[in-house]
Amino acid sequence: MMTFILRRTGSLVLLLAAVSFITFTLFQLGPSDPAAAACGQECTPERVAEARVALGMDQPFFVQYADYIRGLFSSRMIGAPGAQTLCEWPCLGKSFQTNENVADIIGRSLPYTFSMAIGALVLWTITGVGLGLLAALRKGSPVDKFIVGAASVGVSLPIPVTGLFLLLLFVNQLHLLPFTTNEISSPFGPQGPGAWVANYLLPWIALAVLFSASYIRVTRTNMIETFGEDFIRTARAKGLAPRTVTFKHGVRAGITPVVTMLGMDIGLLLGGAVLTEQIFSVPGLGFTAVHAAISGDLPVTMAITMLAAFFVIVANVVVDLAYAAIDPRVRLQ
Amino acid sequence: MKRAEPLTQIQSVEPSTGSPPLPPATSPEATAPAEARSLLATAWMRIRRSKIALLSLCVVVAILLFAILAPVLSAMSGNDPYTSNTSPEVLDDFQTPGLPLPGYMYPSAQHWLGVEPGLGRDLFARLAYGGQVSLTIALLSTVVSVVLGTVLGAAAGYFGGKTDAIISRIMDLFLAFPHLLLVLSLTPILQSRLRDTPLGEGSFLPMASLVIILGFFGWAYLARIVRGQVLSLREREFVEAARSFGASHLSILFRQIIPNVMGVVLVYATMLIPTNISAEAALSFLGVGVKDPTPSWGQMLNAAQSGNWYLSDPWFLAVPGIMLVITVLAFNLLGDAVRDALDPKSSR
Fold it and tell me: Which of A280, B46, B110, B244 allows an S-S link to A180, with CB 3.0 to 4.6 Å?
């Protein structure tokens, strides 16, 4: 077990290093010119050259990368010689737009993204697994067909369409919910948990519709497979109550693929739900990334992309570890 | 596609357990010799049996025709997607400036789907031409992904060793990146670089950059599947035979191996199309993909949201929204059907 964890963590560190390197390469050397972007619309060649020096781009590429990584571990000076400013730890560069420390921008956006992720996660797990299980238990019945049909439609609903429709219906027409504000970023704020739920309910639903559809499919397929296994028949033959067979034996065995999916989706969502945040004007990581991308604010987009990739990779490892803890067959490998 | 080589397991697979058993006498499965059928013919034979699959196929064909015939259909309605008409007879000047007046808001003989708020352009023409743009981007980026994924996946599986290790690690990396975020941030960068190249002309630029980016980030999953298939294929006798005749690696790869994974490739290609349609819509909706005046379904959603026109009247959201949902749904259902028909591992 210990070696498994060590090996997995080792490969995690390598993968994270690779991701940071590739993101850096794509943004710095790739089809872009950060200096021109930093310099803005009206820019003379001299000012581009100045900007290149200010960004440290006159340095060799590997020096730039090493500088960037160094900022993850300690504060460093940033800017042209003579006009350097301190970039405090953790230093991810400074925004071209506001000259603010990118880490501060990210720190400010994270609570919103967490709020979005948590509620949506709870909502889609309950509906997705619940309906998937119901469909599996009633396999072939009208209930099953209805749920499967609804899931097919659900995965085909693009977030912009669902999101705008929800806003139109519940906020604009029925006046049941307020339009999302950026004043509430946690349930423990002065407005209380009620306002937090009301604020994020529509984005949660928009995300949950899309995600729960795929959870319904995976849960249903896996549960049907599990219910056909010998140990379920054995449990039934032993005279156990149907409820015990279903939940204690069936669900525990059939739920593992759902756990995998959940881990991956949490990782994905922590990187920011770009579309949902944009539609509901929730200033999380995704929202910040869109605006940075449109205005060419490279340090911000680069840092958020890297962070999001980190979340996905870490989630991957956590899922593997959880698997190793649950399933003895994995431990032996 | 008819080949003399041994069959893949895909072509000889039994119908999935989910489909009702057919009496052997009427079943084309049982009467026709399996060897004589090509991949597409097999798929068609299975798809024909499912009502939902047939219906989704018809809808897909209808949508493709709608997009291809956009110039004809718009000409029939007497409109084009670019001419704006902001005269006070068409657009409100008073209460909600820019909102089409009742006679122009909804379907009429003159404007089949009404006109757009703000600029008064014909919505039907924009929907049809927008379909052309959206579907072209989705299909071409799928082609890019499929070619990359098939070739790289097959090379990884066939050559093994170092080649496999390198390609597999690249696949892992591509799968780790949050696609939408990366695509979102790289699209404007790529566009600024493409601007001075032959690809950078006018409305062509956003399309080209979306095709390149969506295609470039969509191949890894398919490559992983193809690699898995090729790992077992390369040990088969017909590959051995080709090798003993002195066929080169490239020739074996492209003439023996890849034709035999086309079933799986077809399945994942069909499933990639709706993903790419949604991705185009998402990016254009966010304002980094197709931009006004070029229409696309995502751009139309963007137009409905900007200025909150969709709150003034849901119609502006409904037109591109319903079209998008129907298209993605039809392609998704068709993808499911193709998978059920061709993928032996599908369990439905």
Answer: A280
